[in-house]
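Per reviewer request, we include the raw input and output of the structure prediction for the construct analysed in the revised manuscript.
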Amino acid sequence: MRSDIVLKTELPGLKMLRRGKVRDVYEVQDNLLIIATDRVSAFDVVLPTGIPNKGRTLTQVSLYWFNQTKDIIENHVVAADVEDYPKVLAPFKDILRHRSMLVKKAEPLAIEAIVRGYLSGSGWKEYRKLGSVCGIRLPVGLVESSKLTDPLFTPSTKAEEGHDVNITFEETINIVGKERAERVRDIALGVYSRARDIAERKGIIIADTKMEFGLYQDKLILIDELLTPDSSRFWSAKDYKPGKGQDSFDKQIVRDYLLTLDWDQTYPGPELPEDIVKKTAARYEEILSILTG
């Protein structure tokens, strides 16, 4: 295993709450410690090969966007500099540096807040079949990667395993209540619009993104990650051409490689060759550099 790749963490003396596809979460006093590892998943399978510095990239991009949108909605970040962490974390500074956040212990809402500015992914698949996205009727004649006249709020349920399921706004109301559903929708659209405008000035299109909200002391806040290459589609504005799929600043290189293999997309996944690892790492570093300088 390469020394510059962190696939999992072990912090003796601390209680681990969960190990997700990418993040390890620990309890630290009244807060949570979220560590973004270098694990990469594809087709809902965590692969045995990691992408160097991927966790640092995800963390730094999230922190950038949390800072850019904190006037729209409060977020869960308590501290992100290891020098500001509680003393109990001092022995782990080296592994935590730049890839972790100390955050508020919020209660996550049972939905994902997805905003789409362009027709891609599952939205494009539904549109081709039904002429709609999450039950929202769209004009006829749109093509893959078309820019939508107005961004769409298209929530989904959270799935512990497998794919999340797209739901209508009415179903969202049934899950979280009318007032909260409307507030999540309005804030998600506001955060997306702010980020879209910032990114466009840097030559980046944010095609769509997924946000998570939680309740902290009865207040709605943003949690988890925000506008990262793992939760969003970032496209190059100068290379954008509607009518086909676009190259994304994410792990698409990994997915494309895996599709060339005789693999049934079940655990365990195959090892990735060095050239695919290097190309993917470079893609993550590139979007970090473009967005945050």
